[in-house]
Design goal:
By secondary structure, this protein is mainly α. The protein contains 13 helices and no strands. The longest helix is centred in the last third of the chain and has 62 residues. The protein starts with a helix and ends with a helix.
Length: 394
């Protein structure tokens, strides 16, 4: 009699706990979905604002009809330009996939693609292009463990910057006069390249001389504290050294297999060269003869010069700086040529990234709905199953 009385009570408590847990999970899911919806709305507003600003700041009347006729006459270059866009994201995806394989031992092409697209998307809607890494980590963390999900975007970031610095240094040495007499932009490119090289150089040096870099970092922290630029000295020192150590550890994790590391460097270099080749194709689409090597070299100068501009996607500064490359265009060709280039390097990333974000949101919502139905079904059928198990044990 005692056992019969105890078993139902335990079952009732178990059912009550399951319902409370299920209710809590539903509440957490609703909060996550609300946050995702808010993020989607924010993204739409950011994209709309950027497009409106770029369209309304151009006061020149353009004859789009003549422009489209010219683009049609040069359709082979237009197709080549679009092929470059596809190739750019292909090599970004291949690079991420190589890093995934180097750390996990297996390829994940879909995960690599979504990570590459979301990385470019959030880089282009955040100031200084700094928003991509956290979302890449979050995206990878859904399939990989936390260590790998954190290390891969950081290693990708370092490789990407280091490759750009190497190519730019070569370009600056081989073709220093590609900008002509534009001394201001040339000096800005040199300064920008120094900022761009700072993190990868510090990380590499730290890997070989950790005590030296730590001492240097603490020295600058103390200097900033004396100048009243840093309030909490100890906290800042810990934050700086921890960041450098994390970057160094991520690069070491990826570099365990040198073959994969070299391949990722090659893919990154190809992606940068493809990106720098797009302005040349835009010129040819608009019917302008141009020297390919000079156009590519000018592109690296411009990217180095605008790297410290804090606007999302370098909006504003990018258009103004790239007019140096598109100066042979005039009137409507200048505006629409620049817009065509911006679509390829900027708006396409917004569209593709936003599409992936919506797909993931819908996919997650459907998955949660299926899971909720499954949990509800299991809650109804749980008591009979529990009785059977208890009866069997008895």
């Amino acid at each position: 009699m005692t056992e019969k009385n105890v078993q139902p009570n335990n079952r009732e408590k178990s059912d009550e706990f399951s319902m409370l847990e299920f209710s809590k999970q539903n509440s957490d899911k609703k909060k996550r979905r609300l946050k995702s919806a808010a993020l989607l709305i924010f993204n739409v507003l950011v994209i709309a604002a950027i497009i409106i600003i770029e369209l309304t700041t151009n006061n020149e009347r353009v004859d789009i009809g003549n422009v489209l006729i010219t683009w049609g006459d040069n359709w082979i270059f237009l197709i080549s330009l679009l092929a470059l866009v596809v190739g750019y994201y292909l090599f970004l995806t291949l690079k991420i996939n190589v890093l995934i394989r180097s750390t996990t031992g297996r390829s994940r092409h879909k995960l690599a693609f979504s990570t590459a697209v979301l990385g470019k998307y959030y880089d282009n809607i955040t100031p200084f292009g700094s928003g991509g890494q956290p979302f890449q980590m979050f995206n990878l963390g859904r399939k990989l463990d936390v260590g790998h999900a954190t290390a891969i975007p950081i290693a990708d970031f370092i490789i990407n910057q280091l490759v750009f610095v190497i190519i730019s240094v070569v370009v600056f040495i081989v073709n220093p006069g590609s900008l002509g007499d534009n001394t201001f932009l040339q000096v800005a490119a040199y300064i920008g390249l120094v900022f761009y090289a700072f993190i990868p150089v510090v990380v590499i040096v730290f890997s070989f001389f950790p005590r030296v870099i730590t001492a240097i970092a603490k020295f600058f922290c103390k200097l900033g504290h004396k100048l009243h630029l840093i309030k909490d000295l100890e906290k800042t020192e810990h934050k700086v050294t921890d960041a450098v150590q994390r970057y160094s550890s991520s690069l070491k994790l990826v570099s365990k297999n040198w073959g994969y590391l070299i391949i990722s460097f090659v893919f990154s270099a190809i992606a940068w060269w493809i990106l720098a080749s797009m302005p040349y194709m835009v010129l040819r689409v608009c019917g302008v003869e141009a020297d390919y090597f000079d156009a590519v070299c000018m592109c690296f100068f411009v990217y180095a010069a605008i790297t410290v501009v804090p606007t999302p996607g370098n909006a504003g500064a990018a258009e103004g700086a790239f007019y140096v490359i598109f100066k042979s265009l005039s009137g409507g060709y200048l505006f629409w040529g620049t817009m065509l280039w911006r679509f390829c390097v900027y708006y396409f990333s917004l569209i593709s990234g936003f599409s992936v974000t919506i797909y993931q949101y819908i996919h997650a919502a459907r998955k949660e709905k299926r899971h909720a139905k499954q949990m509800a079904a299991e809650g109804v059928s749980a008591p009979p199953a529990q009785n059977e198990s208890q009866g069997g044990e008895t």
